[in-house]
Amino acid sequence: MAALKIKKGTSRHSAYDLRDYHAEALERHTLAVVVDNEAGVLARVIGLFSGRGYNIESLTVAEIDHKGHMSRITIVTTGTPSVIEQIKAQLGRIVPVHDVHDLTVEGPAVERELGLFKVSGTADKRVEALRLADIFRANVVDSTLGSFVFEITGTPEKIDAFADLMRPLGLEEVARTGVAALARGVMASG
Known about the structure:
- Residues 1-15 have low confidence and may be disordered.
- The protein has four helices and nine strands; from the N terminus they run βαββαββαββαββ.
- It starts with 26 loop residues before the first strand and ends in a 7-residue tail after the last strand.
- The protein is of the alpha+beta class.
């Protein structure tokens, strides 16, 4: 049986390896979208994502200017660089959208999320849950003889890490707000 020789500098891929080695890598982007605070705007923004098969990892929305009737939608999404550019362009074409900022590329940004965690347990597991909550600077916002509800704020990675540690201690339920984000520093006047 003859050995297969492979030229130096080439690679050998299995016929079962269906990965596209020339495809663009997926990136995570945080978008801040300022919109009119009126009925149906959120549905139109969400419709853009669902209609084109784009994923939303996190979504938060709240009014930011009561007198001006403006809201800010913060969307965390993933996609290739070309898909992210398409998303931003398509968001900008929706009529009630005033501004679209890609906080990921515009410079440093601060991202925070709030999580509520219900953890049930007794004895050692209860003590360990309290110890970990103290390390993560989580607050106890409800306590019964059999459970705690912890409130924690931080980066999505911190919230994920806290959840991972609470699972073996009796994590029963989780509620998360999604990411709220702002660019750092002073905004350039334009």
